[in-house]
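Subject: for your reference before the review

Hello V.,

The reviewers asked for a structural picture of the protein, and I figured it would be easier to keep everything in one thread rather than splitting it across files. Below is the amino acid sequence we used in the manuscript, unchanged from the supplementary table.
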Amino acid sequence: YYGHTACLYVNKLRVSGVLPKPVNAYFESIFEVGVDEMLWDDMHKNDMVWPTVKEVHEYRRQVYDIVVDAILNHPSLDDTNGPVKVDQSHPMWALFMGYEHERIHLETSSVLFRETPYHLVQPPENWPPLHPSADGERPSSNPVEGMDYPKNRMIPVNQGTVDLGKPADFPSFGWDNEYGERNLDVPDFQASEFMVSNGEFYEFVESGGYRNKENWCDDGWAWRTHRNMKWPFFWEPDGPAGSHEYKLRTIFKVVDMPWDWPVDVNYYEAKAFCRWKTRMDGSPTSQPYRLLTEAEHHLIRDENSNLVAARKDVLADKVMATSGEEFPEGSHGANLNLAFSSQNPVDHFAPSHTGHRDTTGNAWEWTEDHFNPLKGFEVHHVYDDFSTPCFDGKHSMIVGGSFISTGDEASVFARFHFRPHFLQHSGFRLVASHDDAPATHLFAGNFEGQVAARDAVESDREGMDSVETSNVYETNDSLNMYLGLHYPASGEKEGGAPILPHGNAPNHGVGFPQRVAQLLSTLNPEKTTNRALDMGCAVGGASFELAKNFDQVDAFDFSEAFVNAAKKMQTGEGIRFRVPVEAELFEEVNAVHEAGTAAATLDKVNFFTGDACKVAEMASEGNLGTYDGVIMSNLLCRLPDPMACLNGLSTVVNKGGVVVMVTPFSWLEEFTPRAKWLGGFYDPVSKEPIASKDVLKEVMEDRGFVKIHEEEMPLVIREHQRKYQYIVSEASGWRKEN
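And here is what came back from the structure prediction:
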């Protein structure tokens, strides 16, 4: 979420043509999609290695500066010839989309804070206070109706007609699902005066409502048993098990249980209460208790700020002109727009014209409706998948807004939704009618049978957790292969050759490590310490070649087996390795140095194990010095965090020094999480290809390096005598300028 909201500004302003290029295409790919877990037990975690908080914080600062610059300087907002009207066709509609998207995540993030142990969170500066009713001592159990919470009577509502839909010319931002129209005839119904309070819900909890399967739909029961829920999530036990003593967790604080505040529950819990209430007390109508519908909500909303009023007078949509501080004031006050940072007693504010309380604000209300499009619905081209993926019969509409709902969320035209198992600052009120609920269902039934959808996905995941990961470079096969690559003269005495002799044999691909080291010398790095570094040295062939031109060479590799082999080659211990011939057949040969490699040259090299992703850390600990030359041979695209490696380079390269980086950019998730690839993917907005070569240039230049050389460098790796890997890596040289 920390990167997601900033990323959306960039992506949507690019789609609308305001911004010409990414700020960080990598981040804008991995942070593009929000969170919408399919089911409550969707605990499968992707294998992505996320950036650090510090990196994302810096990204947010960059995005902020760029968005501010767009506001101040983009020609579409030039008002020298009069006020600028930003409507759905204006490119800066995307800017307001970013504002409202961030408001949504302010609210959803506050729920995450509320779920987090309170000692791990703290309120930000200028955070609104809790509602004053949070103060004072209250009993932790056995609340009394009429004393600790009000009696919740059912109030009849006469039939009526509701016209849904936001006018296209209404002067505020709206999400695509708000536009369009639907005319609904709503039969007579009864709705409880208040949202169900903590005190009223306590009866359900204390009587074992969570433990009785009869109260729950199949999916609701599956959720309850999976989570082992016995009371609402934000209730904090405050006594021995079974005593039913509770406090309440607000976003940042635990308070004595306010029994007269609305209870926070998900859709499943709300429906279970309705079933229990019907079983215990019976319904006042021929149909069981149920939840409100979207259309019924608009009938009981106060007539001074409902859909009809807002269409006549823009200011009747109170959020258009009312601050959070002012929202609770007057005869039509409400706890909305962050007036407070918590809920309030359900009987605190005056009733609507129908006699119902909290028809706006305090807590969202779950409804019987699937999230659905209105007639004439059209996606907005800047955000074409905001609503449509959720028109799936698996998202319940919520209405009215909560205390923390701001902007469009607090508008009378708002149409929002969540999956039925989601936690939110949300509750419900009881409804009963003789007629079927005037709800919109996209599919038969209502939020049941979703476990089957989960099962269809599970088969694709079977066995994933049992796959063992290991360092492929610690195997004997890899060691044999790399010894052959680094010491191509091996096998000559045994009558073998690196490549089976034949016409047009690619012998120019032999001796790759030596050619990488030689390239560094030809690029004439300035001599300050006359030391070189071989990062990812493998079994040492390039390291010994470097030692011919430098006084000292430090060489490290992540593989201990490779480093041990390099040390044996340094001390002259005999190493025999297998050269594959055919299927299970092989020849065993002695590893030998290239001609002209003197003992004094070998002594210049210091081999050790190390992590190329921790160069800066190794330098700070004294394990690395500073160098006039550095080589990285086919290393970059085999690292789990290439950027960590590149970030560390500038700390170990002397001014005037040269880095030779050789890589085929063959990104594989086996080695590098996709989130860490420099390129090799399509820009999530423009769909233009992001090439690793271009990103590498930008990264190196940002870190004080100038590109001084580029060539294609082939290499051949033997699989057996008649099969070889032929790879063409890009070899580039980078001089440290500052």
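For the response letter, the relevant points are probably these. The chain has a mean pLDDT of 91. The first strand starts at residue 154 and ends at 157.

Happy to draft the paragraph if you're swamped.

O.
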